[in-house]
Amino acid sequence: MNRKWFIVIIMLSAPGILSANMGISQIEDSITAQYSTSSRSIIENTAFDSEEPNWLKKSEDNSNEYLVHDGYFYFPVEEDLTETNIDKVLGTVSRIGEWEEFKEGDTPYFLPGSIYYTIKSVPDKNKIAIEIVKNETKKYQVLEKGHPVPK
């Protein structure tokens, strides 16, 4: 008799265990999809990915468009810059995303590997430039020194 009840219990609980496992799997898939979509959208939804001819123009809200350099946030400004104004290499964008602790080269906006420079005749690095390449066209975005990075 015990063996018979044991088999009945196993048979009745098997569908519940399987459906719970499927539920967990669906939750994991959903989290993975949300993570990959959000990190992809950060890279895809930038001004330099736009099809418009003015792809380098500053957007209305640039609070999410910054670069961390030398302990400060640098934000895009509308200012024309040519390659002849570029001076020394300061660094390369190292991480893209949102971080609790900011490091040199962090940004949620510019592509990893983008190089940033000093600008000739700009004292104290109040403004720097970042190289942006799109379809083999190279342009430079001027970034203005903002507030210090929180420690």
In short:
The protein is of the alpha+beta class and 151 residues long.
Shape: elongated
Task: List the secondary-structure elements in sequence, H or E.
Answer: HEEEEEEEE
Radius of gyration using CA atoms only: 25 Å
Tally of alpha and pi helices: 1
- Helix/strand-derived class? alpha+beta
Q: What is the subunit arrangement here?
A: single chain
Mean residue pLDDT = 75
Total count of strands:
8
The largest sheet is:
6 strands, antiparallel
Going across the biggest sheet, name each strand in turn. 1-2-8-7-6-3
Share of helix among residues?
25-40%
**How far apart lie the N and C ends?**
69 Å
- β-strand percent reads 25-35%
Q: Would you identify the regions where 5 or more consecutive residues have pLDDT less than 50?
A: 34-59
